[in-house]
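Sequence in, structure out. Go.
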Amino acid sequence: DIDFSDLERKFAVPEQEETLENVVVVDNLPIIDQGKIEKLTGALQKNVFKNAGKFKANGVHMPLADEGKTKGYAFIEFETAQQAQAAVRLGNGFPLERSRRLQVNPFMDVERYTEVEDEYRAPPAEPFIDHGHLKSWLGDEFARDQFATHVGNNVAVYWNETAQPAELITARDNWTGTRVQWSPLGSYMCTFHRPGLALWGGPEFKKLMRVVHPFITHAEFSPSEQYLVTFSSEPISTEAVDKMLGAEEQHQNPFTADDEGHSVCIWNVRTGTLMRSFALPMNKDGTPVKTTWPQFKWSPSEKYFARMTHGSSISIYEAPSMALLDKKSMKVAGIQDFSWCPRVLEDTRTGAARPEMLAYWTPEEGNLPARVTVMAVPSREVVRTKNLFSVFSASLHWHPSGKMMCVRVQRYTKSKKSRFTNLEIFRTGERDVPVDVVELTDSAVAFDWEPTCDNYRFAILHTDDPTPPPTNANGIAMSAVKTNVSFYAFERKGKLVKKEGYALLKTLPNKTTTSLKWSPHGRHIVLATMRTVTTCTLEFYDADFDQTAATKSGNPGDAISLLESAEHYSITELEWDPSGRYVVTSASAWRQLADTGYILWDFKGQQLQKIDIEDFKQFLWRPRPQSLLSEEQKRTIRKDLKSYSRAFDEQDERRLHAADAELMSQRRRLVSEWETWRTQVAELLAAETDKALADGYKLPIAADNEDFVVEEIVEEIIEEKEEFI
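Output:
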C-alpha cells in the first residue's frame, strides 16, 4: 500500500464548524417571474445591501411556487456573520417601493422560532413603577412656573415666587457632572455624566431613563420629545463601553460592532432604545467635515430629520425607520445652512395639511448667483427660489407660525469695502410665496421676530460700523458697538395702505445693544448689552403702550415706549419665563469669576429679587407646552381680563397675608421658645444657688454703686501744611 499521510498533512483543509449565522431571510419581496430573479438580486445588492457586504457566489435562493413565480421571500448568504448583521440593520424596514418595506431577519432566528414550544407560557410580569405624572407641575393651583439652578456641584428646582423667596422643590448635590438641560416641552430634565445622560421627571424628579453614551457633550430633543439625539467627541468603542460598565452591567451596552467609530446617536425617549448611530461626515482626505450643533434638525411632525454636509449635500431621513429618504442624499453644491419650517401649514382653500417645508441657501460660485430655495418634503419639489447677488453671508429666520421666513442677507457695496443688509421676507403661508424686500443702508447685526401673528412684527439691531460684530448661535453680538434698533410690521392693503408690505414703525438711535429678546407672548421686548466689560444696560419696552399717541399720529410705531432702564453688571444670559411676565438676567461662573448670580425682573423692568451666589452656573426656566386654547378662546379671555385680574389679585393678596401670618407665627414661636428657655435657665440657676448656699458657699459682696468718670483724650488733625524751603 502507498502511504499518502505526508500529502494529507500537507494539503489538509482545516475543519470548519458549519453555521448559518451569515444567512439572512428577506421577506416582503415582490412576486416575480423566474426570469427576473437575476435583476432583483442585482437591485438588492446595489441598493439595499451595498454597505453590508457582497453576496456569496450563488448565495441567493428565492423559492418558486408551482406556477413558476417566486414566493415573495429569499435566503441570502453573505461572506461573514458580521456582514449578515449589518444587512439586518440596513435592510429591515427598507422602503423598496412606496408601499413595500422589506423585513430582514437572521436565519438563525427563524430556526429558533421553529423550536418554540406549542404550549404558550406567559412571561413573568414586570413590576409597574409609578414615576408620577410628567406634566404634574402644570396643575399648580397658583399657575406658578418652575426653574432650575446649578450652583457649584448642587442642582435645585424651585417654584417661582415674586413677593417672597422661591419655594424649594428639591435639591441634590452631584446631581449632574457638567450641566443641566430641560426638554422642549418641560417633561424631562437632563443631567450629563461621564457614562452618558440621565432623564428625570415627575413630581419627585425620579430617574426615568439612562442613556449610555460615554463622554456625552450635547443632547437635543425632537419637537415633541419622542426622540433624543446625543453627541460625543469620543467615537463609540463597544470594548471601552463594556469596560466602563463593568462585568455585571455589560448587558446594558446598547452598541454593536456596527456602531464602532460613530459619534452621534438617536434614541427613543419612551423606551430608551437606540434607534441608530451615525458617524461624522468625512472629507476625502479623512478629516471631519465642518459641522455645527445640532447635528440633525427635525421637521415639526417628527416624520423627518436632516443634516447637512457643509458645501455638498443634505441628507433627509425618515422616522421611525431611520432610513434615508428615497435611498439617497440630495446634492446641493455649496450649501451653507438649512432650516425646517417650524409648523405644518394648512391649505387656505381646502384646510388640508400642506407638505412640510425646508429652506436652504447657497453662495455665489463663478457666474452662478447665490440662491435661497424653499422645498417641499418628501417630494423635494421646489416651492420658491430667489437669486441674490454680491452676497457676503445669509441667515434664515422662521417666524414661529411658519407663515413668514426672513433671510437676512449681508451684501457687499459696489466698492466691496463695506457691507449692508437686505431682508428678503418669504410669505410662506400664502399661495406662490411672494417675497418682500426691506433694504437697509447699514448692516443688521441681530434679528428677532415677535412670536405673535397679528402683524408679523420684528425688531432688528443694525450698525453703520464698517466691521459689524459677528453674532453667536443665540443671536448675541460678540462685541458692543454703536447701534440702532428698528421695528417693522407687515401692512395689508387697504384704504390707507396702497401697497402691502413691510413698513418701518420706529427707530431707537444711539444704543450699545447686543441682544434683542421678545416676550414669548409678544408686545414686550428687552434690549440688553451682554457679555461686555464696559456696559451692562437693560431697557424694557412695550410695543403697544401709548395707543393714544399712535392713533393721533396714525403711526403704530409711536406706541412703542420705554418702560424702564436698568443695569446688571457682568450680565451673561437673559431669559423670559414661559408666561412672559418675568425676565431673569444672570452672570455665570462659566464666563467670569466674580459677581455671579441672577436678578428677577417683571416685564415692566421692576427688580423683584437679586440673588448673589458664588460659583453660580445656570438658571433655566422650565418650558411649558403650547396652550390648548384656541385663538377665539384667548380673545374672549383678553376681553374679560379685568375680571380675571381681580380674582388673581385677591388670590395673591390672600397668599401674601398667609405668608405674613406664617412669618408672624414663626416669630411668636421663636419668642416663646426664647422666654421658655430663659425661665428654665433662671430656675436652674436658683436651684444651684440654693444648693451651693446649703453647702456653705458664700456669695461675693456686691460693690457699692458708684459713678466713675472716664476721661479720654482724642487728638484730631484739623489742618496740615507742608512748606518747602
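Check: Residues 62 and 74 are 4 Å apart (CA to CA). Helices lie at 5-10, 37-48, 81-91, 107-114, 238-245, 547-553, 631-639, 641-694.
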